[in-house]
Task: structure prediction
Amino acid sequence: MQEAMINRAKQLLADGTVSRVIGWKRGEFAYDITPAVFESAEELESDFVFDDFTAANVSKYLVKESAKEGKVLVFLKPCDTYSLNQLTKEHRVNRDNVYVIGIPGGPKLDIEKIKAKGITGILSVKNENYTLKIETLYGEETMPFSEAILDKCASCKSKKHVTYDELIGEDGDILESNRFDMVEQLENMTAEERYNFWREQLSKCIRCNACRNVCPACTCEKCVFDNPSSGVENKAASDSFEENMFHIIRAFHVAGRCTDCGECSRVCPQNIPLHLLNRKFIKDINELYGEYQAGEDTTSKAPLNRYTFYDCEASIVHERGVE
Amino acid sequence: MLRISLDKIDSLFAAISEKQALYIPTDRADGAAEYKRYEAGMKLSDKLNTVRSAKDFFFPQTENLVEFKMEGKKIEVNDIRQECEDFVIFGVRACDARSFTILDKVYLVEPVDSFYKNRRDHGTVVTMACTRPAETCFCQTFGIDPTAPEGDCAVWSDGSYYYFKANSDKGQAFVDSIASLLEEGDTAELDKTIAKTKEIMGRLPLSKLSTENFGGDKLNEYFNSDKWGELSESCLGCGTCTFVCPTCQCYDIKDFNTGDGIKRFRCWDSCMYSDFTKMAHGNPRLTQLERFRQRFMHKLVYFPANNNGEFGCVGCGRCLSKCPISMNIVKVMKALEEK
Amino acid sequence: MQVNENKEFQPLIVAFCCNWCSYAGADLSGTNRLNYPSNVKIIRVPCSCRVNPMFILRAFQRGADGVILCGCHPGDCHYTSGNYFTRRRMTLLFSMLDFLGIERDRTRVEWVSAAEGAKFAATMNEFTEAVKKLGPNRRLEDLRCRKQ
Result:
């Protein structure tokens, strides 16, 4: 797959269709892959990588890259295409300046899950028939591929590319996923249990803003939390209230626009399941205002931008779940 | 050397925590390690390191400095400083232990930061030698020996005993306070463990990384390097690297209006943020390239220039494993070295 | 003089009222000499949809024990559709607060027209009672703002 991608990118660079390529660059180890822009065949040859660790969603880089001169080639996994569509809809990406090659999606691996097994000194990770052979400084280790899958891939919602100019490999289908299971579990807890669950999780937050900055839906030029004139700017959560506020507002601001790509939880250095907040909004929207998948198309109105006379009242919250 | 059997660790912790606050790295439900105040039954983590560094003990993420109360035209200023309680941090790795030396160079020079000094005076750092370094470790690059950690008291483990050696008066007082639990023993097994760790250190993927091309005199060479564009291209501008870093020491001072007074506090700041260095006229660092460059130039050039060649990095590897896009100081050093 | 030792909890209620209906409704309840608790502090907004979710959270931060948002009845918005957007936003926000374990009786949306002075007073009485039962807001409180 990696070979085919490099070759096609070289062709498109050579015939002048595109002037730059967005992809993933090899790192120091087996897993530390950085999104990067490639401008020449040599760079692609030496550094371009596509493997089990290329999980990063590169759509957000198109905000910057599509505003530049010349067309940019981007390789998008199915989930990443939803993000691009959403950005196109919001006029944040100039789609005419982007050449999309759809590539097969995950499941991708989570190095944290491998390390959590106590495996350290990792030198290489090979997938042999869905068993990971991990070469380490302390000898060879093995673990099942399925136990190292990223959470966002474990509850994959779609293998279908919703936008592309060409495909390498087959297109897939929208999947029946179990992505709302954990949200439902929480809904069925008592308010006190939920409160304790979220206090434990959100108190880990170090306010690094990685969840916000990686989010393809968070593309404000200046975030209200970074703006000293906003009155709510805060650099560190000085109180548990500020932890709650930041995460509620972050999730609320992308409600109806979040494609559920799962990047927020993937990048969290403290392993906070932030995607659950976003999924709660998605689940509510689906249940109260009809099924809606952000990024599925570039024309539909977002659920918070439309209304009907017969919408439920806010008091519906009292009628649902456990108090 | 004084030692205690591994299975007596609980009674050791109980004895320490009886006299003063004790913090140990322990595993959270999600598997990651963090420092927590010791309570009976808590298990010492066997992870190499905690997600957050040990700098939190001396330089917490947020800290109240002073309070103001206003009544009409009168302003009342309240000094809220309090003497810190005595505490012990157990299980600090060699890299984090060195980071305190680096923070000292910032906070204990004139004018001395009394908040930092207060904590430093009351804290005893008990370090733990490494036996299973990870691929992300590169403390050797900065002359740190993880098999002989600094700190007030160093602890080694050979799998059946913990060995203790005091490095300072505070450390000696700590060893004395637990002397009744310790026994003399030979170190043959321990020497073998240390030799084995040293052998692994030589095989670490980053063992060859060197600082010889960096230092205070490299400003002109690197500041205008054309590598910065490429390196910072995918930087998200988040503060993960800064906040997990044991040596990052920048903070911002802010006022919080509580409704009937002002609480002035300081909190960690990150040079990766868009409002870092923002002044009345605007911000001199307009793009992520400049912010990104600042962070690495500070660690590799500016800091050694001001501190007799000491680098602002200890090679703990936290940024290597936590950066959302896996860009880090090692990649920066390697890229800058390529001519 | 005897100091009244009544320690009964008195909740602080913030009511966001739209300028065109609910604020006028509050006015009417006043001119009709209807009682509603003095714990209710009204903040007038041009339209209920002016209320950003952040306003609700900030009210709690600053010491509110309950927040109620009042606007024109659906179909009657002075700006045609503002309250429809409010309805969706607040439904989602309140659901999220509930998801985080914040007591659901601390927040409410109520439609009060300019002619419904009686409804305004009744709503405020009822809401204040409900919040009083819950006690002080602790789960969404900023400790720095707690009155000593």
